[in-house]
Amino acid sequence: xxxxxxxxxxxxxxxxxxxxxxxxxxxxxxxxxxxxxxxxxxxxxxxxxxxxxxxxxxxxxxxxxxxxxxxxxxxxxxxxxxxxxxxxxxxxxxxxxxxxxxxxxxxxxxxxxxxxxxxxxxxxxxxxxxxxxxxxxxxxxxxxxxxxxxxxxxxxxxxxxxxxxxxxxxxxxxxxxxxxxxxxxxxxxxxxxxxxxxxxxxxxxx
Length: 206
Fold this sequence. Notes:
Distance between the termini: 45 Å
Shape: globular
Number of helices: 6
Strand content: 15-25%
Mean pLDDT: 92
Low-confidence stretches: none
Radius of gyration: 16 Å
C-alpha cells in the first residue's frame, strides 16, 4: 500500500523530499504534482520500475512516450544529442514551465526506453516539489501524465482521489495541492523547425 505524503508546494520539507528519494532509489513508483497535471514516475535507472509504469499505462516500455523530468538544463547533454544554440536559448526562456521538448536522444538513455525514433522528452516543471526530488536524487525522474478514468475530466486533479485509485499500484502519492487539468505543451525539436505535437498549458513563442 502506498504512503500518502503531504508536501508544501512553496517550501518543500527536506526530510519529506529525502523520504520520497529513498523510495525512488529502492525502485519505487511515485505519483507527484507538476506545474500542470499529476505525474506518474520512477528513477530512470530502475528498469523494473519503468516496466511497472508501462504496465499501469497498458503499453510496452519501448512504445511509450515517456519523458524525463530534469532539475535544470545542466544535464541536457547527458541524454540528448548536441542541440543548436537557438534551441537551447528557447528552452532556457520557457523552462521551468509547462512544456515538454522532444529531442534526439544519445546512447545514455536506458536501454528499456530505446524506441525506433531514438527521441526523448525533456521536462522541467515549474514546481518546487518534483524539482527538489530530482535534485536530491541526482538524476532525472521518468514521467508520464496520470490520466483519469472520468468521462468528463481527462486528468485526476484531487490527490486524495488519486491515492484511492492508485494506492495498490504505486509506492507513494505526494499531495502537493490540487493539480491542473491541462497537460504540458509538447514541442518536437528533432528536426530544424519546431512542430507542436500537443497544445497544452504553455503558450509557445519562439
